[in-house]
Amino acid sequence: MTKTYKGLIGGLTVVMMVLIPACKTTKKPVEQKPTETMATSTVPDVPVTATHEEQVKEQPDFVQEQKPQEEVLPTDIEALNQYAQNKGYVRDAFFNYDESTLDADAQAALTATANWLRANGGYNLLVEGHCDERGTEQYNLALGDKRANTAREFLMTLGIDSGRIKTVSYGEERPFDEGHEDSAWAKNRRAHLVLVR
Fold it and tell me: What is the reported pLDDT for 71?
């Protein structure tokens, strides 16, 4: 049995000596020489095009060709008011209960309006002062007047000519929301801006 075992080990040693060096060597890929059948039939014909520089010169300059489109405004003044309100060009200023001072939101609304008015000099503005139903009729007319004039003065500080802005107070007479709760009252405490010619 020892002879068989020694013979087996000897045979494995020879096989290992042959295989290990063979694994360490890397074979170079065989270069394939083109034959007549491989010639140009596998490569499609590519048309000759202009150089990159020529292509760049031929491209139009989109920045110069694009002109800003002028916005077409409705000619009907009521339709224009609706359009300007929907687009946010003319925005009402809202007030807190029993106040006529402008908070940050009201100032932002009036600033947006002033920006639009400066760009559209053909329109003037009517500022309506409104109140909720609490308080006497006389008190609310006076408060509505204060609110309208506060909005007017702020617009003037933003560069809108005083001759373009008129004011009126409606007090509680023309509510925007007929409700009798806080959410309705908040909608009614405003300086409502109306475009006029």
Answer: 81
